[in-house]
Amino acid sequence: MALEHAILVSLLERPGSGYELARRFDRSIGRFWTATHQQIYRVLRRMEADGWVRAEEVAQDGRPDKKVYSAAPPGREALAAWLREPVEPETVRHELAVRIRAAAFDDPAALIPEVERHREGHAALLARYLHGERRDFPGAAAPDALDARERLQHVVLRGGIEYERMTLAWLDEVLATLRELADGRTAPGADH
Questions:
Q1: Which of 46, 90, 131, 188 can pair with 104 through a Cys bridge, CB separation 3.0 to 4.6 Å?
Q2: CB 117 within 8 A of CB 99
Q3: Contact partners, residue 150, CB within 8 Å, separation at least 6
Q4: What is the pTM of this model?
């Protein structure tokens, strides 16, 4: 996926300035596709030059005018074509998992602080997702209360929530195993 596609999705959901778009990325799409504010502005300029987005100058009281971007027909066509392309399963590269396996050949206790740090990060991310769910989808308990667009947005967020819950459960299991090995209750084996 290119950043252009993520920007088009966001602009179809709601037109906005580059700043507003960058904030939306920080709040929602950024959960699954990260981009710096500079990258977003650079890609917006290119998309405008290519005719994928339109920019409208909007006057502001006491502040410089801002450009409000919206998806243009060629951008919608590009997004539709991209949507129909096959998606290959993502290749997972998980450095922490390799380190956990390597702990069998060293001191398992040495890895505990790093796993705890990862757990804290995932717990914070889960809390942020749950807060966003309460804020953005208060009627989600009754699926009929959400329109089609909101239901699709919500189901993506639910995927993120469930991923974080699964990751936390796995990290808890890793920590329990590392602590057990560190306490010497089970000697690490070299045949794993």
A1: 188
A2: no
A3: 137
A4: 0.76
Q: 109-168 pLDDT, tens per residue?
A: 999 999 999 999 999 999 989 998 898 888 777 767 888 888 888 888 899 899 999 999
| Matching residue, tokens 């790093």 | 114
CATH 1.10.10.10 describes domain 3-83: yes
Q: At what angle do helices 3-13 and 73-83 cross, to 10 degrees?
A: 120
Separation of alpha carbons 115 and 102, rounded Å: 13
Domain residue limits, the chain: 3-83, 95-182
Q: How many CB atoms lie within 10 A of CB 92?
A: 6
Which residue is listed with tokens 């998309």? 47
Please work out, in degrees rounded to the nearest 5, the angle formed at the alpha carbon of residue 171 by the alpha carbons of 168 and 175: 140
β-pair type (63-71, 53-60): antiparallel
Alpha-carbon distance 175 to 34, whole Å? Answer: 29
Q: How many CA atoms within 13 Å lie on the side-chain side of 103?
A: 25
